[in-house]
Design brief:
Layout lengths: L1 H10 L8 H4 L7 E7 L6 H16 L5 E7 L12 H10 L6 E4 L2 E3 L6 H8 L5 E10 L2 E10 L9 E12 L11 E8 L6 E2 L9 E8 L3 E2 L13 E2 L7 E9 L5 E6 L1 E2 L4 E9 L3 E7 L2 E3 L3 E4 L3 E8 L4 E7 L2 E2 L7 E5 L4 E8 L2 E9 L3 E7 L2 E3 L3 E4 L3 E8 L3 E8 L2 E2 L7 E5 L4 E9 L5 H5 L2 E3 L6 E5 L4 E7 L5 E6 L5 E5 L6 E9 L4 E8 L1
Parallel strand pairs: 1-2, 5-15, 11-12, 16-24, 25-33
Antiparallel strand pairs: 1-3, 3-4, 5-6, 6-10, 7-8, 7-9, 7-13, 13-14, 16-19, 17-18, 17-20, 20-23, 21-22, 21-24, 25-28, 26-27, 26-29, 29-32, 30-31, 30-33, 34-35, 35-38, 36-37, 36-39, 39-40
C-alpha cells in the first residue's frame, strides 16, 4: 500500500499545459472525465464511490462534465467488458494504476479526486463549443456533433473529434472485487478509437460530423481472455440505456478542448429572426454569449438571449414571440429556447404617468393642457411632457396657493403653474377672497432710520390700525394708533439702547413684526 500511494503521489503532479485556446476562451467548459477501472480491481469500488460523491456535489453547480469509463483487462482476470478500443485509450495515456482518471487529458487519482479539483477544471473557459444529438433505433446508434470554434485554431492533424457510445449503467460485469454496477461504460467508438481528424478550424464556422454504428449479433458476456468481437456480437445490456459522448482533443498535447453528452433526439436547426417595431431603440441576440444576426440558423434546444436597448427616456412596451405578446415581461431582456422557427420583436414607448388635478374647497376652477390640447384629471401623460395648469378663480377670489403632490409650491400665487412630468403627479389649487390680501399691504411698510436714535419714521401706513413696540422680554414699551397718513413718526428718545420689535396690525386683523435697533 505504501508503494501504491507513493507512486500515486508521483504521478498526479503531471498535468497537461493549457494552450492559447484556453486563455482566449469564451464558452463554458464541459470537463471530460475518463475513468479507467475493472471489476477485478480491489480499489475500483471505492474509487467509483468517491467519484460519484464528487459528481453529486458538482451536479449542484450545473453538472458541467462529461463522463466515460473504460473497463480494463487487469489485474488478474480483468473485466469482461474490456475492449481493444479501451486499451487504445489506456496506451494513449500510459495508465498503469487502477482506478485512474484523466480529466481534460490530465492524470488524477480517482480515490483522491475532489469537487474543488473538478471545479478548477470547469472554470477554465474554452474556445470550442461542442454540442450533439443522438438517436437509437433498434440496435443502430446515429450521432451528429456540432463543433463551433470562437477563434481560429491551426493545429494541423493533431486536432481530433472522438465520439463514443456508452452504457449508462451495467450490472453483469462482476468479478472478485464484489462490485456489481458500473456507470458510463464505453461500448464502442464511432468510428474507432483513433478519432476523426478536424484539421484547422475557422472562427465561428461550425463543423458538423455524423456517425452511425450498428451493433451486430446478440449479447455476449466475454470470458477471461476473450475480447468482444464487434463484427458478430455486442455487450450492450439495455439499448434504451445508451448514451453518446463526444470531445475535441489535441492528440499531441493530450489537451481536451471541450466535450459534451449528446442530447437524445434528432438535431435540427431553425431560423431566428428579430426586429424592433417603431424604432426608438435597438435589439441584439446571443447564443451562449456569442452574437447572432437576425436570420441566422440556431440548433434546437439552444437558448437565444435577446437584449433590448431603448433610447433615452424610453422603456420596453412589449415583446412578441411569433406575433404573440409575451405576458409579464417589459424588462430589457428576453430568452427563448429554440424548438421551431422563431420571430422575436420588441416595441418601445415613453413611460406614462397619471396626472390628477383638483380645486380645494371650490371658489374657482382648474384646467390643464399639453401643447395647447386639454387633458382631463386622471389622464396618462408621457414622461418629459409639460402640463400647463390654469386656475380660474370666481369673482372677488384670487389664488391662495398651489400644491404639487401635497407640497406647497413656493413663490407662486398666480393663475398659472406648469409641471414637467417625471412621475405620477397631483396638482391642487386653493382660492381665497381678494380682501384677505390686505395683509400684503403690511409687507410694504418700512421703518427708518434703523438703527434709530430719537425719532422713528414708518412709511406706507395707510392701512395700519395700531403699532406696538416691545422689548426683548416681550414687554410693550410704546403703543400708537395709525394716522391714516402715508408716513407717521414715533418718538424713541426715551427708549434705552437695545433691540426692540415693532408689530403693525391692519384693519382686517393681519399683522407683521419687524426688528428695530435703538442706538
Amino acid at each position: 500500500m505504501k508503494k501504491y500511494l507513493l507512486l500515486t503521489g508521483v504521478i498526479i503532479v503531471f498535468h497537461c499545459a493549457y494552450s492559447q485556446c484556453d486563455f482566449s476562451g469564451q464558452v463554458p467548459r464541459y470537463t471530460l472525465i475518463e475513468g479507467f477501472t475493472s471489476c477485478s480491481s480491489p480499489h475500483s469500488f471505492n474509487g467509483q464511490l468517491n467519484l460519484q460523491n464528487v459528481l453529486t456535489q458538482n451536479d449542484v453547480q450545473d453538472g458541467k462534465y462529461t463522463l466515460i469509463k473504460y473497463q480494463m483487462n487487469w489485474p488478474s482476470s480483468g473485466d469482461p467488458y474490456y475492449t481493444l478500443e479501451g486499451a487504445a485509450r489506456r496506451n494513449f495515456y500510459d495508465v498503469t494504476i487502477l482506478p485512474w482518471l484523466h480529466v481534460d487529458g490530465s492524470g488524477e487519482n480517482e480515490l483522491l479526486f475532489t469537487n474543488n479539483q473538478l471545479v478548477d477544471y470547469q472554470n477554465i473557459l474554452s474556445c470550442i463549443e461542442v454540442k450533439g444529438n443522438f438517436s437509437v433505433e433498434d440496435k443502430t446508434v446515429n450521432a451528429i456533433i456540432h463543433i463551433t470554434p470562437t477563434v481560429d485554431i491551426n493545429e494541423s492533424n493533431d486536432l481530433r473529434l472522438f465520439i463514443a457510445i456508452v452504457e449508462k449503467i451495467t450490472h453483469k460485469n462482476t468479478c472478485n472485487s464484489g462490485q456489481n454496477t458500473f456507470v458510463q461504460v464505453m461500448k464502442k467508438f464511432m468510428p474507432d478509437a483513433d478519432g476523426i481528424e478536424l484539421g484547422n478550424l475557422t472562427e465561428n464556422q461550425t463543423i458538423i460530423k455524423e456517425q452511425t454504428w450498428e451493433f451486430k449479433g446478440n449479447y455476449c458476456m466475454p470470458y477471461p481472455g476473450y475480447i468482444i468481437n464487434h463484427d458478430i456480437e455486442h455487450s450492450v445490456e439495455n439499448f434504451d440505456n445508451l448514451e453518446v459522448v463526444a470531445w475535441v482533443q489535441n492528440i499531441a498535447t493530450k489537451e481536451v478542448y471541450n466535450s459534451c453528452t449528446a442530447t437524445k433526439g434528432a438535431l435540427t436547426t431553425f431560423v431566428v429572426d428579430y426586429d424592433v417595431i417603431g424604432g426608438n431603440g435597438s435589439l441584439s441576440a446571443t447564443v451562449n454569449g456569442t452574437p447572432i444576426n437576425s436570420g441566422d440558423m440556431v440548433n434546437t434546444g439552444e437558448t437565444v438571449d435577446f437584449t433590448a436597448t431603448p433610447n433615452q427616456n424610453y422603456i420596453v412596451k412589449e415583446w412578441k414571440l411569433n406575433d404573440i405578446v409575451v405576458s409579464d415581461n417589459t424588462t430589457d431582456n428576453y430568452s427563448v429556447i429554440v424548438d421551431k422557427a422563431i420571430n422575436v420583436t420588441v416595441e418601445f414607448m415613453l413611460p406614462t404617468f397619471v396626472v390628477d388635478y383638483d380645486v380645494i374647497s371650490g371658489n374657482g376652477s382648474l384646467s390643464a393642457t399639453i401643447n395647447g390640447s386639454p387633458i382631463n384629471s386622471g389622464d396618462m401623460v408621457n414622461i418629459g411632457e409639460t402640463v400647463d395648469f390654469t386656475a380660474t378663480p370666481n369673482q372677488d377670489y384670487i389664488v391662495k396657493e398651489w400644491k404639487l403632490n401635497d407640497i406647497v409650491v413656493s413663490d407662486n400665487t398666480t393663475d398659472n403653474h406648469s409641471v414637467i412630468v417625471d412621475k405620477a403627479i397631483n396638482v391642487t389649487v386653493e382660492f381665497m377672497l381678494a380682501s384677505n390680501i390686505a395683509t400684503n399691504n403690511l409687507v410694504a411698510v418700512e421703518l427708518f432710520p434703523n438703527p434709530v436714535t430719537n425719532e422713528l419714521y414708518i412709511s406706507n401706513t395707510q392701512q395700519v390700525k395700531n403699532i406696538t413696540i416691545a422689548n426683548m422680554t416681550g414687554q410693550t414699551v410704546i403703543e400708537a394708533l395709525g394716522t391714516g397718513n402715508k408716513t407717521m413718526a414715533i418718538s424713541t428718545q426715551y427708549l434705552p439702547s437695545g433691540i426692540f420689535f415693532v408689530t403693525l396690525k391692519n384693519r382686517e386683523g393681519f399683522q407683521i413684526t419687524k426688528k428695530l435697533v435703538k442706538k
